Structure formats: C-alpha cells, structure tokens
Amino acid sequence: MSQISFFDQVNRNFDRAAALTDHSETLLSLIKQCNSVYHMTFPLKRDDGSIESIHAWRVEHSHHKQPTKGGIRFADAVNEDEVMALAALMSYKCAIVDVPFGGAKGGIRINRHNYSDRELERITRRYTFELVKKNFIGPGVDVPAPDFGTGPREMSWIADTYMAMVPGELNALGCVTGKPVAQGGIRGRTEATGRGVYFGVREACDVPEDMARLGLTVGLSGKRVIVQGLGNVGSHASQFLQDGGAIIVAVAEREGAVHNPDGLDVRALIAHRTATGSVANFPGSTYIARSLDALELPCDILVPAALENQITEENAPRIQAKIIAEGANGPTTSRASEMLAERGVLVIPDSYLNAGGVVVSYFEWLKNLSHVRFGRMERRFEESAYRGLLQAMESMTEKRLSEVEIRALAKGASEEDIVQSGLEDTMVDAYRQIRRIQHERKDCPDLRTASFVSAIDKIALCYSELGIFP
Ligand code: NAD
Fold this sequence. Notes:
This protein is of the alpha/beta class. It has a domain at 34-183: Rossmann fold. It is built from 16 helices and 12 strands. It has helices spanning 6-18, 25-32, 80-96, 117-133, 152-165, 192-205, 208-214, 232-243, 266-276, 334-342, 350-353, 356-370, 379-397, 403-409, 415-440, 447-465, and strands at 36-45, 51-60, 68-74, 102-108, 142-146, 224-228, 247-253, 256-259, 286-288, 301-304, 323-325, 346-348. It has a 7-stranded mixed beta sheet with strand order 9-8-7-6-10-11-12, sandwiched between helices. It has a 5-stranded mixed beta sheet with strand order 1-2-4-3-5. α6 (192-205) packs across α8 (232-243). The longest helix is centred in the last third of the chain and has 26 residues, at 415-440. The chain starts with 5 loop residues before the first helix and ends in a 5-residue tail after the last helix. The model has no long low-confidence stretch (mean pLDDT 96). Residues 146-149, 193, 228-234, 252-254, 291, 305-307, 327-329, 354, 357 line the site of nicotinamide-adenine-dinucleotide.
C-alpha cells in the first residue's frame, strides 16, 4: 500500500502536469489548495437507544466557479485527507469536461451496512442540517450528489431537509442532484457514470494508432474486460460494455470474484448477487476467494470501479490488462500509474473517465433551475416537422414508408435521448481534447497528465479572466 496520502497523490499528478504549463507558482498553488474544509461531529441516537458520535466532512476545493459540486460517500474509511483529495479531483474533473462548477466532496465515516434505514435517514438529515447551518449547501452554493454508499434515496432526504429549512427557495430542488425522477431528478442520471465509462473506453478503443501500439484490434468488440465493483458505476459500466460487444471475463466484489474466460452474463450475475448476496456459485464461473487476485487475470481492459488504491506498486507488475479504465476515483496509486505507463499500458484516468455522473448532474441542475423537463417544449413539434419532411419525400419519390419506419425516423427527442446525447458528446469531445494535449504538449507522458494540464489551463484562464492574475 502506498505511504503517501491520497491528497498528496492527487497533488503529485497536479505537479507533474503543472510543470508542463507556464503558469506562475502562486497561481498554481492557489488552484491546488482546498478553499474550505468543514469537519463536523454530531450525535446519533441509535435504534437501541445508545448514542454514537458521527464524524463527517464537506470540502469545497475550488470556488473559481460556483456552485461547487461533488458526491457524498458513506464509508468507514472516510477521513479529511480523502475528502480533500476527492474534492480536488472534482474541480479538475469538472474543468476537463467543461462543466461550470468548482469541485467539492462530502463524506460520513460510517459503514452503511451497520445501520438501519431509519438510522441512515437520521444521519443524512442531520448532516444536511449541519451543511445548511454553515452555508455549505444550496443551488448556487454547493450541490452534493451520490457517491460510494449513497444513492437517490439519500439525495431525496437531503433535498427534503433543505426545502424544510430554506422555505420559499424557488430553486431549492437544485440543492442536490442524483434525486429520484419523481423528486426533480433526471432520467439517465443513475447509470450516467457507467455510461460515461463506456463512451470513454469506446472512444479510446476507436483510435487506430493507440490500438496498434497496444497490439489490440480497433473497436470494443471482442475485448476481454475485468470489472472490480458491481455497484452503481461497475454494474452499469459492465452492462454497457457488454452491450457494446466486450466480453466480461471476471468480476471482483467485496466477498470474492468470479471468472469465466469465455464471458459472464453480467445481468444474470447482478441478479444472482441480488438474490443470494454474493457472486459466489454463479453458474459457469470459477470462484476466487481473494477478490483482488482477479485483477491480475488475463484481459485487455481492467475497469476498477470500487475503491481507491486498488492498483499499487505491489500488484501493478502483475496486472495483464493493456488498458486500465478508471471507473472509481483514485484506484491507481501515482507510483503504480508511473510503472504502468513505463510498460506502455494505456490508463484512461478517473479525472476524465468517471465524469459522466457530474455531467448528467449538471443537466439535472439545469432542469431544476429551468423548472421544465428537457424535450417537453419541442418533442411534439420535432415529431410533426420530421413527419412533414418524410411525407414530402414520399410524394417526391413515390415510395411509401411503413408506420414503424416513420415512427423510428420521426422521433422527437425525449429527456433521456437528450441526456444521453449530451453525455456522449461531452465524453467524446473531452477524450479528444486530452488525447490531443498528450500528443501536442512536449514531454506529456500519459493521459492523466494531459487531463490535469487541460484542467489547470481552464481554471487558470478563469482566474486570469477575473483579473486576479495576468
Ligand atoms: P457503490 O457503493 O454503488 O458501489 C461500490 C461497489 O464496490 C459495491 O458493490 C461494493 O460492494 C464494492 N466493493 C467494496 N469493496 C470492494 C472490494 N474490496 N473489492 C471489490 N468490490 C468492492 O459506489 P459507486 O457509486 O459505484 O462508486 C464506486 C467508485 O466510483 C468510487 O470510487 C466513487 O468515488 C466513484 N464514482 C462514483 C460516481 C457515481 O456517480 N456513483 C461518480 C464518479 C465516481
């Protein structure tokens, strides 16, 4: 396990990229530091009547754009350094994918499995209360979202608490994203990060020069993939990758891993785990008790989508994947990253690859501020305009289309269509940007450094436009 802290690792990546820019030291250190760090403790009355102290954090890393934005995680390893690191990653991530937010992150040090639903609700609502009290939440201030251990349910508790405490705030629903659709959420948010991982991996596999260098064929089809984590990011990423033609050969979860070199049916595996509570005994697979060992099995693409620090200098030499697609935040230590780069492994960095969640969160926030569902105003208009066009073409060509063909061609865009297309456009564009930087910027060793260069340049531009720095 690496000895340097997670925040130091993020800063090490930052420094490597900063050396390739010509911004002043003062500006660079201004960008790097965390603007506000809020550590709170509050009591929880447990269901059995006992009292426990809960430690929680919210960190706003950069106010160069506001509001700030970032998920809230529930995990027993949460600490201040981790939340600071993740908040910093959020600032860079938002800049890389051109989402106009500063970065933030929240964390509550609990193992959610040790608490009842009622206890989790009390913890989430009290945490929100503390954030409101210190002005660390609001549609124009700081907008949380789901992360490890949290989901739509926790987000709706946060929105509800915020609305109760800030009555009359017209845009109150925009205080948090990742909400259920019925409570101001947006269609496509739940699977957004996994879908974004898919778009990023697909884009990387579509570059002929890069695939030739790795000794791989162009395209996702037939590529063997190992996924770590079957949670929000991992389960959706693996389904989209499988649908895109990849073969999921192994899945590693907390209780162990399963392997089948001919491919696992991911949907069936998810159903099996939901039903039995474990990936073990999945028909047609070999069970591996030490889950981490599965990361070293033969494959083309490894998708760590669970926790940080999973690929370290200890196991990096044994990783066989030619592409590491970082679905999780910080899954590869900076030393392991260097070792992989030396071996020519293509690492698609977390700062870019798992940005799908924040991209669609941005769309959700826009929806909350505009108070209208995407597609509501134009969908029917588009449909009748396309139908008119098709009818004109039919009368010119004297050919008739079936109603099924007409319906497929004359489809107005729904909210989900718009979200998917906006996400795809963003992920494709950002991949091309960072790849271009890697190739154009002298001495840029890898995509991670290129993604940081992209973020640093954009944040620096923001400060210079404010007139703070020349
Ligand atoms: P999640 O809680 O939904 O899923 C995490 C999964 O990892 C769970 O299934 C858990 O059982 C599994 N896991 C835990 N320990 C493990 C271990 N030792 N080995 C293998 N699997 C293990 O969390 P998530 O939202 O999918 O987040 C996963 C990662 O992705 C985190 O690093 C998070 O910061 C990052 N991320 C999430 C989002 C999002 O939108 N949810 C966005 C960006 C980044």
